[in-house]
Amino acid sequence: MQNRISSFPPLIDSQSEILILGSIPGVKSLEKQQYYAHPQNKFWTIIFHLFNEEFTEDYIQRLDTLKKHHIAVWDVIDSCERKGSLDSEIRNEEANQIAELLDEHPNIKAIFCNGGKSFKNLQKLLGKNYRLPIFQLPSTSPLHTVSFDKKLEEWKVILNFLNK
């Protein structure tokens, strides 16, 4: 039995300069109503390393860190059916309105996809020659078994698009 699930609202404001897109929240994130809530997901660890910030488990402080560094977060998929948390189990998906979000937030300079599913879906939505650069980054999911150091190194490309 597959459950119909929905993504969260975008974390974005008028100061956001980059957009990080996942596919859709996993089971633990849905339970906690927090982006990247699974303790083995490396998203927050990578973000805090990139900006030399002191790591915290406090979700409000995590969101403040994103805002401080002009990072927006959302998902490519608005809703779908899925058993468990695997992207490979996603069925009957409906897309989020990514193009509209980007039109409403002209400060966004680049889009970074957290994993392959997000990247493939975004290319279907926006096309391969969209007006903004789009990057596929290694998934921060514990199921993507690339080492933390390799993930972190590839995620450093984000720093090239932020005003410092």
Structure description:
The chain has 164 residues and is of the alpha/beta class. Helices cover 30% and strands 21% of the residues. It has six helices and seven strands; from the N terminus they run E-E-H-H-H-E-E-E-H-E-H-E-H. It has a four-stranded parallel β-sheet with strand order 3-2-6-7. Strand 6 (110-114), helix 5 (116-126) and strand 7 (134-137) form a beta-alpha-beta unit. The radius of gyration is 15 Å and the shape is globular.
The CA-CA distance between the termini, in Å, is 48 Å
As a percent range, the share of strand residues is 15-25%
- One letter per element, helices H and strands E, the order comes to EEHHHEEEHEHEH
Number of strands: 7
What is the residue-averaged pLDDT? 94
The description of the largest β-sheet is: 4 strands, parallel
Taking pLDDT < 50 over at least 5 consecutive residues as the criterion, the unreliable ranges are: none
> What oligomeric state is this?
single chain
Strand arrangement within the widest β-sheet reads: 3-2-6-7
Percentage of residues assigned to helices: 25-40%
SS content category: alpha/beta
Tell me, briefly, the overall form: globular
Rg over CA atoms, rounded to whole Å, is: 15 Å
Helical stretch count?
6
Q: Topology, please?
A:
Layout: E1 3-6, E2 18-22, H1 27-32, H2 43-50, H3 59-68, E3 71-75, E4 77-82, E5 91-95, H4 98-104, E6 110-114, H5 116-126, E7 134-137, H6 148-155
Parallel strand pairs: 2-3, 2-6, 6-7
Antiparallel strand pairs: 1-4, 4-5
